[in-house]
Write a structure and sequence with these properties.
This protein has about 70 residues and is mainly α. It has one domain. It has three helices and two strands; from the N terminus they run βααβα. A two-stranded antiparallel ribbon has the order 1-2.
């Protein structure tokens, strides 16, 4: 399914807000970091539509890259 990158980012940030309200700061931080990885990868065009699987793959790859550089 195709999704607009901007809407995916907003969705993850909204999820983070809900998680903060519930007191789950760790998962909220994970959602925020996921949104940041999307913004970084698609910074040239966040209004484009991409496959959901691509978003997941990009963000997981970036997460792994960040972890390996520590």
């Amino acid at each position: 399914m195709q999704v607009e990158v901007r809407m995916a980012i907003m969705s993850h940030l909204s999820d983070a807000q809900e998680l903060i309200q519930l007191g789950d700061k760790q998962r909220a931080n994970e959602e925020i970091n996921y949104a940041k990885r999307m913004m970084n990868h698609y910074r040239d065009n966040i209004t484009q539509y991409v496959d959901e699987d691509e978003l997941t793959r990009v963000c997981l790859n970036r997460k792994n890259e960040s972890a390996s550089s520590i």
